[in-house]
Amino acid sequence: MNRVVRFHQTGGPEVLHLEEAPVPEPGPGEVLIRTRALGLNRAESMFRLGQYGTDPVFPSGIGYEAAGVVEALGDGVRGLNVGEAVSVVPSFSMTDYGVHGEAVLAPANAVVAHPGRLSFEEAASVWMQFITAYGGLVDLAGVRPGDTVLISAASSSVGLAAIQVAHKAGARAIALTRTGAKRQQLLDAGADEVIATAEEDVPARVRELTDGQGARIIFDPVGGTALADLVTAAAHEAHLVLYGVLDRTPTPLNVGEVLFKHLTIRGFELFEITTDDRRRAEAVAFVADGLAKGELTPTIDKTFPLEEIAEAHRYLEAGGQVGKIVVTVPGT
């Protein structure tokens, strides 16, 4: 038998259960993976709560990221081998595939060879965060040497990835965090400057750090009332890339600033990249190059055993982590 994470109704972490199920057979174009580690993201929390873009179909699986070993291949799968270490690029709906379990199916186009130098825990922490950061900063905003990049929620796994992606492109990364409690950790993680948004005047501090120019790229998963300060902190012809909505309160927007600064405000989802064959291949190549050169390194905050999947979700929602939360599977 095989244990998988399922839930039968939306709600808090308590709705998650480990349930026994037969080991699935891979169909055409599918890969069966015996997992070793699972990456946890805000997306899973939102999906479980019924606040994601796709509603769960019950009983529902869950999970976008996993690393492990290929156990079987479906018809037509090329370029992968049984016994090969692999990880999963989020490029599918959780209503079709949920990869949080011991033996799980994934579409072959979402499975990539295990990045060298990484543990299974690190490999389960790579693709969601680094491709999200790559998509927003490189693919959409065209980050370039000398740019100043403002990164909201900088202690999240994507925020830390964005610091590294900005540096890989030769840009300066300014980390935004609510209080100064994580300041030193963010500096240690590579942030060039840190602004505590609840304690400092964000636009004034950005002007000071940019000689009055403002930031050319703003990478934000929060929205809400804080977006007004980010618009004010933006440089002329800046790009504001919004990849989440952690704060669902109405956003005040100074349309005059948007107009006269010639700002581009763009919503972005990872799946714009990962469901497009060309863009996904370019993103995977960018991240793989950064991993190989040591320019990109996943940061793991804490690991939980599979039996504590609900507790891992509680820890995620508490918001105290700096980096990725990983769930380990027996046999690691």
From TrEMBL:
Domain (Enoyl reductase (ER)) spans: 11-327
Recorded hits in Pfam families, A to Z, give:
ADH_N (PF08240), ADH_zinc_N (PF00107)
Which CDD domains would you find in this protein's record? MDR2 (cd08268)
Highest taxon in the source lineage: Bacteria
SUPFAM superfamilies from the xrefs?
GroES-like (SSF50129), NAD(P)-binding Rossmann-fold domains (SSF51735)
Entry keyword NADP:
yes
The alphabetical list of record keywords is:
NADP, Oxidoreductase
PANTHER family assigned to the protein according to its UniProt record, in alphabetical order: QUINONE OXIDOREDUCTASE PIG3-RELATED, ZINC-CONTAINING ALCOHOL DEHYDROGENASE
- The protein's name is Zinc-dependent alcohol dehydrogenase family protein
